Amino acid sequence: MDTAIKNNVKTIYNEDYKSLKELFIDYRATQRCLPSFNVNDNYDLRAVVEASDEMDTHVMVMTYPPVAELNTTEVFRSLVDGFKKGFKNDIYLHLDHSTSVDLCKRAIDSGYDSVMIDGSQVSLKENIKMTKQVVDYAASAGVVVEAEIGKIMGRDVVVKSDNDFLADVDEVKQLFETTGVDIVAVGIGTAHGFTPTEPKIHFDRLQEIAEAIPAPLVLHGGTGIPDVDIQKSINMGMSKINIGTIVHTTYMKHAFEEIKKAGNDAYPPFIMKKVLPKIKDVVKDRLKAVNFK
Ligand code: 13P
């Protein structure tokens, strides 16, 4: 296991928790961060789970809405349950970036551990309304709810002015206090995907937000963020980090190469046996960056 002794404190990433909510509260208090990876099917799911098991850490796997729709939330829940049997630490399942309250409800009904309702593209009033609907629905099931405020750049996110993406501290407070949401994703300058230049993280804003609300915060856009900035953010209150693009691009690139080599003989299990270690390598590399203490 990757542990280190720092200031005589042994930091571990496999502690037992009664619930995911409890884990997040403790991670915020102890400046730790749950590594969370976007996965697409049983193959990259296996790669993430095996890498995490070998590094002896809890992990979260996340389905974007197209993945949840195509596989169905029920099937993904069963897949993760299947993997959980063979592995020693916790594997939490999360719905990522859902703009639909209904899809969040479906994921909650299917037994997801956590859901994100993304109201970052609508007005604060509408964002609060959507978030509250999901928080109320999730309450009896004990499911964690993540909201977003400010914007994570990249993909088709519309940024209207220079600082339009930055989460406003008063708005963050209002969203958190009126909805009782568990964890909050905040726009502080990160972007989804590979970025042409290093994203400039607004640490001053992160500090203001972390002082304004006690909620565990979520760092999106994990693929393009340098390790030093990931680690600084974790020390400032980021308790969950989302990492996606590096997983699916590694998967697609190596699958493409192997299929090209095999030609008409390409057979999925043989191809995937060669691709899986490549995905595991990048997952382990990111786990080392996140579980750094
Ligand atoms: P990356 O694709 O940049 O890793 O970001 C993933 C993410 O933030 C998913 O919510």
Q: Could you please describe the fold and organization of this structure?
A:
It is a single chain. It is built from eleven helices and ten strands. It is of the alpha/beta class and 293 residues long. The protein has a single domain (5-290), classed as Aldolase class I (TIM Barrel, Alpha-Beta Barrel), CATH 3.20.20.70. The strands form two sheets. An eight-stranded parallel beta barrel has the order 3-4-5-6-7-8-9-10, surrounded by ten helices. Strands 1-2 form a two-stranded antiparallel sheet. The radius of gyration is 18 Å and the shape is globular. Mean pLDDT is 94; it is low at 1-6.
Q: Which stretches are low in confidence, meaning pLDDT under 50 for 5 or more residues running? A: 1-6
The percent of residues in helical segments reads 40-55%
The neighbouring-strand order within the major sheet is: 3-4-5-6-7-8-9-10
| Proportion of strand residues | 15-25%
Count of domain modules? 1
CATH architecture descriptor name: Alpha-Beta Barrel
Number of helices: 11
Structure described in brief:
Helix content is 48%, strand content 15%. It has 293 residues and is α/β, with parallel strands linked by helices.
SSE blueprint and pairings:
Elements: E1 5-6, E2 9-10, H1 20-29, E3 34-38, H2 42-54, E4 59-63, H3 65-71, H4 73-86, E5 91-98, H5 101-110, E6 114-117, H6 124-139, E7 144-149, H7 169-179, E8 183-186, H8 203-212, E9 217-219, H9 227-235, E10 238-243, H10 245-262, H11 268-290
Helix pairs in contact: 2-11, 5-6, 6-7, 7-8, 10-11
The structure holds 1,3-dihydroxyacetonephosphate (13P).
